[in-house]
Design goal:
Layout lengths: L7 E6 L9 H9 L10 E7 L5 H5 L4 E8 L8 E5 H5 L15 H11 L4 E8 L13 H19 L3
Length: 161
């Protein structure tokens, strides 16, 4: 059983040491400073670059909102809402990225084979290029997507609780 207890979870992914890749964590940081933090039935979690541990984080949840950096050939800082089932279909659209070997999409595909997955929604912020050098700075263009992502997450939460 997961150590998390809420039926709705918001999980932010990324590395704070890889610049724009950390934008999912920035969204979590903003959410944790709002009235949503501590709301019964909701967990807001910095999931870092957890890899297969994602399966533990989604266990026992009714709905999971994943926030992550994406590469979707769209303007830098643009925000996308992606249904988890669309990622799992094996469609051509696989924008979730990772500085490690497994992407969120890879882990969800594994999870689909070994456990029952909750409803999953991905809020992705376009970062433009893969981050290859260590930095703690997120570009201003990518940061422009944070407020829009927070608003999309608020809408997801209000329609789910």
């Amino acid at each position: 059983m997961s150590i998390l207890h809420a039926p709705l979870r918001v999980l932010g992914f990324g590395s704070p040491l890889m610049g724009n890749d950390g934008v999912g964590l920035k969204v979590i940081e903003v959410l944790q400073k709002t009235e949503l933090e501590g709301l019964e039935g909701l967990d807001i979690v910095d999931a870092g670059v957890c890899g297969l541990d994602l399966l533990n984080l989604i266990e026992d949840a009714r709905k999971v909102i994943i926030v992550d950096a994406i590469l979707a050939n769209s303007p830098v800082g643009s925000v996308h809402r992606i249904e988890g089932r669309d990622l799992l279909k094996g469609a051509e659209f696989h924008p979730l990225i990772s500085v490690h070997d497994l992407t969120v999409t890879d882990v969800l595909m594994i999870g689909e084979q070994i456990q029952t997955l909750p409803e999953i929604v991905v809020i992705g912020i376009e970062i433009g290029t893969l981050v290859t050098e260590a930095t703690t700075e997120i570009s201003p263009d990518v940061l422009k997507g944070v407020d829009e992502a927070v608003e999309l997450i608020r809408k997801e939460i209000s329609s789910s609780l």
